[in-house]
């Protein structure tokens, strides 16, 4: 390698986070062992890394999309292993989770190639070659609009072009705050999406109930660039309870379709959110901890209630419903909930509206593709405000498969039920 100049390339070097990139190394000696390394500094100033061990072919080339990694943070033929297998570098703080807060800035990756098969010491050694790549949640032309209207707080993302576009109300879970990156990515795929803030991590509003979410839905419908009768709802975790409640009971907000990720029909939003969290606190004794003191919360809603008043009457739902779950979800009893939802809808005669995806060995945090798998991370329990390390579950490779496959299916589901084809903006290219 001292006699040659290795060439490292990433194509495309700028793209959306759910777009695959090709990483190739050329001009190596044949059968040359190298390590490909990806480094990212988060907005919290923590460093994350992934790496794979490769050997060049007879022509002195390594192609990550085609060649096998013999070790590292991933192994085998993994096109996007340098992204989905990222983990905090050794010595990092415990409980980290990689989440984008500034969607108007890219996720910057430093991809390098090193001599030999390394497992540590990357920052102390000079790489043979390095390339910087950018991954974006927000495509060119997407408009980001802060929402403080009619008592509702959120962020609206509008695709490029005149519209009108199909709309999506996007809700995260009990962690609270305003989480924008999934909505930005939805807008990059042609959906006018509003990320909704409905829980403050430090102080749960005492009076927030279904009316708040109905108003948020109406704000989307009323936007001049939205097709008012083609608005869907996407919720993760506690956001699924909100989505199911609106679909089943609201006479104002009637979604065209609903997507629930890692959620349940327990705790319908038919009373103030703070009251619901207070009820959860009464069941706190059901929460467990593993040998590393990580909190396991899935038993909080087990066994699934038989009293219809204690869960959303999903038999009332009249729109297509997609449920996405991992069977190793340690945070919420999602697979048991999905089974009960299917039984209730079967009895009510509306099970034909239900599609359920259950991914083996996937955990709770099923996010857009190539998001690094986090088995446990810091979390504030809403009913007690206790700071804990929450166990989410899942295994890295299986969870990565679930995220990539489910995202494609979610986008296709939304397109099928929300879009009149000419209104959907083409995916923007960076």
TrEMBL record:
Any Pfam family the entry gives: BAAT_C
Annotated catalytic residues: 237, 329, 364
One GO MF term attached to the UniProt entry: fatty acyl-CoA hydrolase activity
InterPro entries cross-referenced by the UniProt entry: AB_hydrolase_fold, Acyl-CoA_thioEstase_long-chain, BAAT_C, Thio_Ohase/aa_AcTrfase, Thio_Ohase/BAAT_N
Top-rank taxon, per record: Eukaryota
Example GO biological process: acyl-CoA metabolic process
Domain called BAAT/Acyl-CoA thioester hydrolase C-terminal: residue spans: 209-418
Domain (Acyl-CoA thioester hydrolase/bile acid-CoA amino acid N-acetyltransferase): residue spans on this chain: 18-149
Family designation: Belongs to the C/M/P thioester hydrolase family.
PANTHER family: ACYL-COA THIOESTERASE 17-RELATED, ACYL-COENZYME A THIOESTERASE-RELATED
The protein, known as: Peroxisomal succinyl-coenzyme A thioesterase-like
Organism this protein belongs to: Gadus morhua (Atlantic cod)
Gene field: LOC115531899
């Amino acid at each position: 390698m001292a006699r040659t100049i290795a060439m490292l390339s990433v194509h495309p070097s700028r793209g959306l986070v759910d777009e695959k990139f090709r990483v190739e190394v050329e001009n190596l000696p044949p059968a040359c062992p190298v390590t490909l390394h990806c480094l990212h500094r988060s907005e919290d100033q923590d460093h994350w890394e992934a790496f794979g061990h490769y050997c060049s072919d007879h022509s002195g080339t390594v192609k990550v999309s085609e060649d096998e990694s013999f070790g590292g943070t991933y192994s085998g033929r993994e096109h996007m292993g340098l992204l989905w297998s990222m983990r905090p570098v050794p010595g990092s703080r415990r409980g980290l989770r990689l989440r984008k807060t500034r969607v108007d800035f890219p996720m910057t990756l430093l991809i390098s190639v090193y001599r030999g098969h390394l497992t540590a010491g990357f920052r102390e050694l000079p790489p043979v070659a390095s390339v910087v790549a950018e991954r974006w949640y927000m495509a060119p032309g997407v408009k980001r609009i802060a929402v403080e209207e009619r008592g509702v707080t959120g962020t609206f993302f509008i695709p490029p072009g005149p519209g009108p576009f199909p709309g999506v109300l996007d809700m995260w879970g009990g962690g609270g705050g305003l989480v924008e990156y999934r909505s930005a990515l939805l807008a990059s795929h042609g959906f006018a999406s509003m990320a909704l803030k409905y829980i403050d991590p430090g102080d749960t509003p005492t009076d927030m109930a279904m009316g708040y979410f109905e108003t948020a839905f109406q704000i989307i419908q009323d936007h001049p660039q939205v097709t008012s009768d083609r608005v869907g709802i996407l919720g993760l975790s506690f956001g699924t309870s909100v989505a199911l409640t609106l679909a089943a009971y609201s006479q104002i907000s009637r979604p065209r379709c609903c997507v629930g990720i890692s959620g349940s029909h327990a705790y319908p939003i038919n009373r103030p959110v703070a009251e619901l969290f207070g009820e959860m606190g009464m069941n706190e004794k059901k929460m467990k901890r593993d040998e590393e003191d990580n909190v396991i919360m899935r038993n909080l809603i087990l066994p699934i209630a038989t009293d219809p008043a204690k869960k959303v009457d999903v038999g009332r739902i009249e729109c297509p419903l997609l449920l996405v779950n991992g069977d190793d979800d340690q945070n919420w009893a999602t697979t048991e909930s999905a089974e009960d939802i299917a039984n209730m809808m079967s009895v009510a005669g509306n099970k034909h509206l239900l599609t359920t995806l259950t991914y083996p060995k996937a955990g709770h945090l099923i996010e857009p593709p190539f998001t690094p798998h986090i088995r446990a991370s810091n979390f504030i329990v809403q009913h007690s405000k206790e700071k804990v390390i929450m166990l989410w579950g899942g295994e890295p490779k299986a969870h990565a498969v679930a995220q990539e496959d489910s995202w494609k299916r979610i986008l296709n589901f939304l397109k099928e039920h929300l879009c009149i084809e000419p209104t959907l903006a083409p995916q923007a290219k960076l």
